[in-house]
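Aim 2, interim progress: modelling of the magnesium ion-bound target.
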Amino acid sequence: MPAAITPQPPLRGVKAAIVDLDGTMLDTVLDIHAAINLMRADLHLGPTPVTQIRDMIGKGSEKLVRDVLALDLGAAEVEQRFEQAFDAYQRHYAAINGNHSTHYPDVAAGLQALQDDGLRLACVTNKPIGLARPLLEQKGLSHFFDVIYGGDSLEKKKPHPMPLLQVCEDFALAPQQVVAIGDSSNDAQAARAAGCPVLTVPYGYNHGESIHETDSDGIVDTLLHAAKLIRLHNSATN
Ligand SMILES: O=C(O)COP(=O)(O)O
Ligand SMILES: [Mg+2]
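Predicted structure of the complex, ligand included:
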């Protein structure tokens, strides 16, 4: 009789982690909100509330700026004014980047624990790389990462699997050996499409939806919790 096949826990044998930025490591909504309203003022549009902006985060800056313009303008005018708005947003954001952003609990401790356990780390964010790199640097997190990809680093951004698959190639690992950790369905969809296991945190920005609606291999309270869970699964292998 053939031996019973026990299902492999998805975190078994994980050797690297891809960590999302906005809503996972750093609470950046106040920076994004401030830059959006400075941009809107340039275009003679009134301010928007932070709650509205929070639900729009996650699909990259181009989509965010288009969605924000669409609050007041029709489709044709959005396209007409997009370039000016996008330039203004990036300029204002660069000037205040990090001023109103804070670490979520146990972010540095979690990254340190993952690294101590021998995992290689990559950051994959939809934030433009020109904003993501200095922000990670300023917040003392960039040294954890061997690789950092922004939303404009590659041809496609999350939820497309391309940036995740690029990390797997960089690390010479199979997607099943690389766990993605993020705050939104955008991260989970990219991970599923790449074939990576995925853990989600419940405290970030998930397009106004509960994280419980998102397909994931586990919800972790913090990155430290993620590290402990991965350690548990990996020690079960030996
Ligand atoms: O800038 C965004 O749209 C969100 O970026 P994230 O991928 O780090 O959550
Ligand atoms: Mg995010």
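The longest strand covers residues 120-124. The two ends are 26 Å apart (CA to CA).
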